[in-house]
Amino acid sequence: MARYVALLGSINVGGNRLLMADLREALEREDFEDVETVVASGNVLFSHDERPSRALAEKIAYIIRDRFDIDTFAAVRSKDELQAAIIDNPFVKDGAPNFVHTIFLAEPLDKEAFHAFASRYEGPERLAAGVMEFYVDFREGVGRSMLDPAMKKAKVIKSRATARNVRSLQRILDKMDN
To answer: InterPro entries from the entry (predicted)?
Structure first.
C-alpha cells in the first residue's frame, strides 16, 4: 500500500460544509485505508493500492459528489510529490511560510500563458511556474491580493485548483512520516 494525500478544493468554504468524520467514513467504505484528516479544510491522508494520482483524484471527487453532493477537486500527491511541491517552490527560502503557497492544478500548467501573464502582472506577489502546480509568494497577505481575480480575468488557469501554504504542506508531510 502506498501513502497519499488528497488536497481537496472548496471544502468547508462557501457553504460546502463537510464533517471530516463523514469524509473518512465514506473513503474507508471505498477501499481507502488508514484514512486521516489534517485540519478541517480538506486535507486527507490515506493508504491505497498504488495507482496514478489522477485516477485516485477522480475516484475521491466522485465519492464526495455522490455521497455529499459537493462538486470538488482533489489534488492527490504521493509523499515524494508533496515533498517536491515544497522543495521546488523557489520562495520557500526567503518568504514567510504562511504567505508562500503552492497552487495545485487538475491539469498541467500552460507555461506559455502563465509566463505571459506573470510578465504583465503588476501586483506585489512573486510567481513561478511548476508542472501540475504554480508557486506564489503573497508578500502582502492572501486576503488583500488581487492575483486570483486578475488570473480569472486573463483566463490563465483553465483547470480547477486548490492552494496550500508551505506551513500546512510541511505539517501534512510530517504526518505522512508517522
So the answer is: DUF1697
